[in-house]
Amino acid sequence: MIKGILWVLVIAALAALATAVTYEVQTSHLQAKLFSRYAGEMTYTLEVGPSDAIVFPAAGPYNERQGYTSIPSFTARLLKRGFEIRQQAHFSDTMLEYVTLGGNAPYREKQQSGLSVRDGADQLVYQTRQPERVYGHFNDIPPLLVDTLLFIENRELLNDTHPTRNPALEWDRLGKVLYAHAVSLVRPHQDTAGASTLATQLEKFRYSPGGLTTDVEEKLRQMVSASIRAYQDGPDTSAARRRIVRDYINSTPLAGRVGFGEIQGVGEGLWAWYGIDFDTANRVLGLAPDEAVLEERARVYKAALSLLLSQRRPSYYLLAGREELASLTDSYLRVLGNAGVIDARLRDAALAQPLIFREGAPMMDSPSFIRQKAVNSVRTELLSLLGINSLYALDRLDLEVKTTVASEVQQAVADTLEKLVDPEHARAMGLIGERLLRENQLSAVRFSVLLYESTPDGNKLRVQTDNLNMPFDLNDGSMLDLGSTAKLRTLVTYLQVVETLYRRHRQQAVAPADVANDPLRLWVADYLRQHPRAALPDILAAAMARRYSASPWELFFTASGQHRFHNFESRDNNRVMSVSEAFNRSVNLVFIRMMRDITRFYINEIPGVHDLLENRDNPLRREYLARFADQEGKEYLGRFHGVYRGKTGDQLIATLAQRTRAVPYRLAMAFRSVRPDANNEAMAAFMASRLGAEMLDDDEVAALYEKYGRDKFNSNDRAYLAGVHPLELWLVEYLLANPGAPLEELTTASSDARQEAYTWLFKTKSWNKQQKRIRILIEQDAFAAIHREWRKLGYPFPSLVPSYATALGASADRPAALSELMGIIVNDGLRLPMSQIETVRFGAGTPYETFMVAVPKVGEQVLSPEVAQTLRSALVGIVESGTARRLAGVFVAPDGTPLAVGGKTGTGDHRSKRMAAGGRVISETVINRNAIFTFFIDDRFFGTILANVGGPEARNFQFTSGLAAQLLKALEPSLQPLLYDDTERLADNAAVTGQQVSAAADSGL
């Protein structure tokens, strides 16, 4: 009796347990309580300063694409570049513990994200959103698409019988999987099904490494993370389950196409793979069955179904396995029809439709590069700041950026530049006329505008645009001959030299006798003897009044040869004028002589230079000569490489024969030099190819073969007898032994050969030749010193052409670099950072949100205030009475006060010339023509205007720098909102903003 009662109790207990388990399986009631309570404690807040309670994800396609995994490296780079973390997300203790243990942070993921750029007025100027075609809400999805997805993947997901049900688990599917895995232990080759619900699949392709389930532990992590995410809003998961459907349809990975990139979501897939418009698809899928649209409905439905099925192996099914995908889709159409998910008419119509993939990548909207120049400059800067190697990856980051660009003014300027192809518009702007443009030339000219504002926080980019409808940016990416703007750099260096000498000798005017060839040193010493109490501004003013000849009749030895220079206006040829007047009128020969004086100063700064030139026993002479041999040897080697590059062995020999005079002994010496082991029959064939009918008999060839053996002469003698350069013989011999050797290898291998080729130069009797070559190298050293000074002022290139012609633009420049120089002058010699990005915000609204702000940097004093003021006055003179006088009085404040305007014009006519002996031009190729004006307006704004024509057609243009100045004049109405803004109101706004930031910090926002 007692045993019976016990058995009844046991059975009752088991029944109760079974009932409880069944109830839990059906309702997830216990899970709902536990998971919702736990999820409710997983929170995060945005707090001031760097966070000490945040964990960034280490893997997952979604995290990588959004940039969340890279935020630590991004912030580290930005911190080094002058940014600071102003705000960052802070995890609750529970969330921090959960994520540290490996869970995926629960939050509402964004359906779309991408780069956003806003200006100072918070106007959106650029935005990308990926994927582009998504469903914002569950109710936006056609029910037919939802029913199909659920039937294929997760049929019970939206069953509302039990609102607390856990969408991450389906116990029947899990049981089947566990059974299958148990069977696989006995039968290793037995296939096993997956237990993934839509919720766990989302976790997998978003957050698992590589979007894959690698082991049981990873599967458990997916299930737990999906469960936590489902219960974020409480025990009822009804809304969460609808979001799962929406998110899956929006973000399922569908491989990628060349020219388009990653494809995610059904909406994007329909467009990218099948060319089906998203709105059209939603319209026809959402309609009630109708014969009128049945065919189109069937085509769209079949394409959507194929995408849902392709998710299992997207990179295969959507590329190489399209036939298999079509077969799989047809089989599912039959199953769906039999199950009643779709009606028979739609099934049959869809079966009759082929899957037609679009040919090639979908056409993307072509942006106007003209209107995007400033934004593209910001994006390029972000690539550098963040260490990203493509704009594609940048545009997909969950990133918000604030730029300094004044977008409304930028747009107005861009609109103006785009209209310049219209003759009426160009004429109204004053751009057509003598030394300007003709109506039929407008479409060939590229204009660019760069404008910065000097602020207490640094120099901020306000406008950057051009009318070149290509990604290339004339301001940042060009290397242009900009003519007389080089005179500005030359003048800066001239005044710096005067200042250096003044500070060095102001206590006692000293001019050693051994610097008689140093005019600036002598002039400063003489000035200080006459004006012992002179202040720096006094001697700088005197330096601007110093006079130079403008005569073009003198020959100048520079850049390894004799050169003659010309003035733009012949009326200056017989004049002697002050530096100030020459700068105003941009007189070439004055600045050639000024550059010669500057060069002589830096030559005399080289320690021991006089003994080097006068003492035959100075050990430095040999070092200089060896350096010359190495340098010129490389030049010759490069020329010869151009002749012989890509040739086979026989072609190398044939080319050498053609380049050697048809004289038997020369041919013999050339052949024996490069083919020392060849027999006389081979030499006979070589000579026959060149001598033809004049070929020698066998005995004569044998005699030459014996006489001109390689071992009987050194390399210089062999070259002399062959009548070719010793390095040409060396190169042919090396290429015969090492076919196809690149120039880098040849340069390395020829180190000793280059020195040997110049042994004649080291002989005592070559004194005059040595002097000439040492002076060439000393001049190069002087220009290297000048280059170091220019680099401090923002010169963008790694070297200068060691020639006085650098004063006229031979070393090229960039508009952006000239703008930076103008900013230094405006800021009294202080080189402030040139900024265009003020703030960056990663992952706004996510647990990884990080807000960084550019911190004002301390500028570097690269010019003395006195030199900067002298230059400023000289630049104002150019507008008041010089080459930019058309701008005089143009910029006037609203109260009628004229604004100080200064700048430097420049005209560059870049031509490549081939010269013969004596300076005769053999040929000439036109590269481009440029007109430029680098300027400042008042003490706040500065920048550069450029007009450029590239290619051979530049030959037909005669415009001067006045064209650039005229464009600035014409742009005055477009620039008004920026130039004439109420500075007091700006200051008030800045103060209010500062108070708001302080208040936010105090309140912990």
Tell me the Rg in angstroms: 39 Å
- Structural class, by secondary structure, is alpha+beta
State the major sheet: 7 strands, mixed
Side by side, the strands of the main sheet go: 1-2-17-16-7-3-4
Question: Could you say which overall geometry the principal axes of the C-alpha atoms support?
Answer: globular
| Content of β-strand | 5-15%
Number of helices: 42
Mean pLDDT: 87
Oligomer: single chain
User: What's the number of structural domains?
Assistant: 5
Share of helical residues: 40-55%
Straight-line distance between termini: 73 Å
Work out the number of β strands. Answer: 21
Low-confidence stretches: 189-193, 983-1005
Report on the architecture of this protein.
There is one protein chain. This protein is an alpha+beta fold. It folds into five domains: 1-40 and 135-254, Penicillin binding protein transpeptidase fold (Orthogonal Bundle), CATH 1.10.3810; 276-351, no CATH class; 404-482 and 865-1005, no CATH class; 487-605 and 776-811, no CATH class; 625-762, no CATH class. Helices cover 51% and strands 13% of the residues. The protein contains 42 helices and 21 strands. The strands form six sheets. It has a seven-stranded mixed β-sheet. It has a six-stranded mixed β-sheet with strand order 15-9-8-21-20-19, with helices on both faces. The longest helix has 26 residues, at 2-27. 40% of the residues are buried.
Helix-strand layout with pairing:
Layout: H1 2-27, H2 29-40, E1 44-48, H3 61-66, H4 71-80, E2 83-91, H5 93-100, E3 115-118, E4 124-127, H6 143-153, H7 171-186, H8 198-207, H9 216-230, H10 238-251, E5 253-257, E6 261-264, H11 266-274, H12 278-286, H13 294-310, H14 314-320, H15 322-338, H16 344-351, H17 369-386, H18 391-395, E7 399-403, H19 407-418, H20 423-428, E8 446-455, E9 458-466, H21 474-477, H22 485-505, H23 519-530, H24 536-545, E10 547-549, E11 556-558, E12 561-563, E13 576-578, H25 579-585, H26 588-604, H27 609-614, H28 619-644, H29 649-659, H30 664-674, H31 680-691, H32 698-707, H33 715-722, H34 726-737, H35 743-749, H36 751-757, H37 767-792, H38 815-826, E14 830-831, E15 834-835, E16 837-842, E17 850-854, E18 860-861, H39 865-881, E19 901-915, E20 921-937, E21 941-950, H40 962-970, H41 972-979, H42 983-1003
Parallel strand pairs: 3-7, 9-15
Antiparallel strand pairs: 1-2, 2-17, 3-4, 5-6, 7-16, 8-9, 8-21, 10-13, 11-12, 14-18, 16-17, 19-20, 20-21
Helix pairs in contact: 2-9, 6-13, 8-9, 8-10, 11-13, 13-15, 13-16, 14-15, 15-16, 19-41, 22-23, 22-24, 22-26, 25-39, 26-37, 28-34, 28-36, 28-37, 29-31, 29-34, 30-31, 30-33, 31-32, 33-34
